[in-house]
Amino acid sequence: MSAVAEAVAIAPETREFLDRDHKLFIDGKWVDAHSGEKHAVYDPATEGQIATFDVADEVDVEAAIAAARRAFKGEWSTMNSYQRTILLTRLADEIDANLQTLAELEVLDNGQPMALAQYTTTYAANFVRYYAGWPTKIHGDTIPVSPMGVPNGESLTYTRREPVGVVGAIIPWNAPIAMFILKLAPALAAGCTIIIKPAELTPLTALKLCDLIQKIGFPPGVVNVIPGAGRIAGAALAEHPDVAKISFTGSTEVGQRIVQSCLGNLKKVTLELGGKSPVVVFPDADLEAVKVGAIRAAFFLQGQNCMAGTRLFVHQDVFDEVVQGVAAIANAMKIGPGLDPNNDLGPLISADQREIVMSYIQAGKDEGAELICGGEALPGKGHFVQPTIFAHPHQDIKIAREEIFGPVLFAQPFGDSDLQAIAAEANDSIYGLSGSVWTKDISVGLKMASLIDSGQVSINCHAAVDPAIPFGGNKMSGWGREFGQEGLEPYLKTKSTTVIF
Ligand code: NAP
Ligand code: MG
Questions:
Q1: N or C: which terminal CB in the chain sees fewer CB atoms within 10 Å?
Q2: Looking at residue 320, which CATH number applies to its domain?
Q3: Is 306 considered catalytic here?
Q4: Are residues 357 and 404 in contact, defined by beta-carbon separation less than 8 angstroms?
């Protein structure tokens, strides 16, 4: 057991769950992995082992897909839309009822601060509630045409929206509960069945959620969860001809590989990938709000956040004030295990991730950027890195161009250019996921929002997320949108039917 798990009081349910034998969840049952292989789960704050879990291989993926196919054609397909609403609503209530255990497991597995884990768990419950309202609102159209020269009034054409079928979801480690629910809720609302492969580094909350799914009584096989390696279980899921759609969240590089894996049966693909989002600050903005907003934008989830605002563009007249103000807040942040409610910033997910982040910090120094604050990993156990800010007059250095996925913020001043030129700087990235504009002049805010090439732009806040607001990336940040009505679309297909009287 981890030192932190021993030292900090965690709920008895959390302890009991950690000590369990964690199997695969297939066809409504806990089953042993085919290979018998088990991997360890580590607490990133202490590096101590906190659990082990069964690792799925291709044979387990095959079994999960077979169960999901049976469920898709079986009882699930005969349930009416109200029954889907009732089951999803129960799941939301169960998430609320298990908030503390889910949040504690999320902190131990992923490292994030407790308050954040509680917030994202509540958010996940509300996300399920939002989609629980959809099954009764999915419908087709009647189309007033007279096809093939049939006289008017002697035919009927209508469309139906049907679930695409078996869905494979492959998710990352940075926000495990949220990622799980983001895939599950719209898929089930649409009437699909699903196989979810959590990230190898963070399987625990996905498995805890299966307890709730089992308790609620979803028909067996509607939800299957198979922790395993991306290159084995993830690849097998993406390649399988009986999977109709893959919903992937992760790196752009793996997203490209997924697209190739999906070519065999031309399965539908949605991709939520990396980001390097701009935060653009005009001199008339509420600078106190900017400082707090820039901290949240850059260091939420220790910067391991696809929406992170990691390129801070500030008008030259207020550049020093803003950057020094952001640095003052960053320097005052308490870094330590997420279970301690006094800590603002937890550890990075792994030693590998810390090494990657530290190599970017070194690159920033080597390429001549000015280190404003931070820049060091903390000695001792846990993968902790200080919140770090660099300033530089232009973006032609590595830390401005590549997604770091750690607590590193790049800041650059801009002068009295026109909005087109400022937007060109903000858009000088292969990514286009999120972004924010800070100004009291709403016409400047709206104009900049229209010029920034991202799937989401917020004015006077960063990354406004709500289950009803479509979210997704332009350029190399992805394909398609999640959240809201648009987030349901990829799980549905349209069938047109015409009858001639
Ligand atoms: P990753 O390496 O791309 O992994 C994501 C998922 O893909 C994991 O479950 C992984 O399994 C699996 N995987 C790896 N190789 C695979 C393959 N060949 N075939 C099928 N699946 C495979 O990403 P990560 O390092 O976990 O997360 C960081 C990245 O996610 C960042 O780039 C970040 O921007 C992005 N992200 C995007 C969003 C968004 O909404 N746009 C949200 C969060 C994160 P393993 O666990 O075994 O590696
Ligand atoms: Mg990875």
A1: C
A2: 3.40.309.10
A3: yes
A4: yes
